[in-house]
Structure formats: structure tokens, C-alpha cells
């Protein structure tokens, strides 16, 4: 079985941070995600998707994400039901985030930590640079942009 959701969109409002009775932080917000293809009239439609984030990441989202910020969410789809005050059963679809990436810089001059750094560095607000692959200590392809001096005798074919 597989239940995986990856979304990129803009927050429709500031995240709402709450705490469970046991003190676990939980934040919720909504992402506006544009559809890939235009509808029959040529307009692009937008879906508004509810996101739930738990624990330390919930506090980071509440601290650094605000309405209009661009974010990527990786998580799972959850459908839950509850009974409202009128006694009616209500079904709610939401994405429970495992990771949230902040994709643009904050408008305020706050310093960004490693957990809140953008995935793609932005030099111009309208034109981000392409994302570069992270460098790892044991990555054999970390220096793949350098020329390698190989003679024909070194090749096995």
C-alpha cells in the first residue's frame, strides 16, 4: 500500500498552533495549490488543501510560515470523521505532513536556520536559481562537474 502526497503551494492564512492535552504541538494551515492544466474556459483552477503538522515542525511552521509564503509539503492523506454539535457526521480530508520545506525567503529580516532554509536559493524574487544537489561526505558523485583524466587504456571496453 502507498499513501504519499507531495504539494507545493502558498499559505492562505497564518498557521494556527495549538497544543494537545499532553502538550504536543500541532499546527494547521491551508495551502493554495494550482492545478497543472487549465479548465475548459482556459483558466487555471486552485485547490485549497488542509495541512496538519505535529511536534517541533509544527512550532517551526507557526514561527516562520505566514500567509502567502511558498511551501512544499510531503506527507500522507488522512480522511477522518467526527460528529459536529448538530449531531451530523462530518468527513474531513487533510494532509498530515511529515516534512515541510519553506521555499521562499521571509519578508522580515529574520535569520533562517537550517530547518527553514529555502530548498532553492533565491537571488531575484521573480527568478530563483535552479536547486543544487546537497553534498554528502560519502557521495561518490559529489565532484561530478570536474573533468577526469582517463586514457583509452583505462576503459574496460
Characterise the protein shown here.
This protein is 6% helix and 44% strand. It has a single domain, classed as OB fold (Dihydrolipoamide Acetyltransferase, E2P) (Beta Barrel), CATH 2.40.50. The strands form two sheets. Strands 1-3-4-6-5 form a five-stranded mixed barrel. By secondary structure, it is mainly beta. Plays an important role in DNA replication, recombination and repair. Binds to ssDNA and to an array of partner proteins to recruit them to their sites of action during DNA metabolism.
Number of domains: 1
Report strand order across the widest sheet.
1-3-4-6-5
Mean pLDDT: 80
What is the correct CATH architecture?
A: Beta Barrel
The percent of residues in helical segments reads under 10%
CATH homolog superfamily: Nucleic acid-binding proteins
Largest sheet: 5 strands, mixed, barrel
From the alpha-carbon coordinates, what is the Rg to the nearest angstrom? 21 Å
CATH class: Mainly Beta
CATH topology group? OB fold (Dihydrolipoamide Acetyltransferase, E2P)
Strand content: 35-45%
Taken in chain order, the helices and strands follow as EEEEHEEEE
The dominant shape is: extended
E-strand count? 8
Q: Tell me the distance between the termini.
A: 43 Å
Helix vs. strand class: mainly beta
Q: Tell me the number of helical segments per DSSP (H or I, 4 or more residues long).
A: 1
Poorly predicted tracts of residues: 109-128
Subunit structure: Homotetramer.
Function: Plays an important role in DNA replication, recombination and repair. Binds to ssDNA and to an array of partner proteins to recruit them to their sites of action during DNA metabolism.
Region (Disordered): 107-157
Biased composition (Low complexity): 110-125
Amino acid at each position: 500500500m502507498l499513501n504519499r502526497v507531495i504539494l507545493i503551494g502558498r499559505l492562505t492564512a497564518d498557521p494556527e498552533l495549538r497544543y494537545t492535552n499532553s502538550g504536543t504541538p500541532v499546527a494547521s494551515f491551508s495551502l493554495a495549490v494550482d492545478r497543472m492544466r487549465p479548465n475548459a474556459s482556459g483558466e487555471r483552477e486552485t485547490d485549497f488543501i488542509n495541512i496538519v503538522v505535529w511536534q517541533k515542525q509544527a512550532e517551526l511552521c507557526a514561527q516562520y510560515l505566514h500567509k502567502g509564503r511558498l511551501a512544499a509539503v510531503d506527507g500522507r492523506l488522512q480522511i477522518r470523521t467526527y460528529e459536529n454539535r448538530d449531531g451530523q457526521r462530518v468527513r474531513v480530508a487533510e494532509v498530515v505532513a511529515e516534512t515541510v520545506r519553506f521555499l521562499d525567503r521571509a519578508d522580515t529580516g529574520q535569520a533562517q536556520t537550517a530547518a527553514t532554509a529555502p530548498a532553492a536559493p533565491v537571488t531575484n524574487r521573480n527568478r530563483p536559481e535552479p536547486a543544487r544537489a546537497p553534498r554528502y561526505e560519502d557521495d561518490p558523485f559529489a565532484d561530478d562537474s570536474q573533468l577526469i583524466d582517463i586514457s583509452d587504456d583505462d576503459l574496460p571496453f
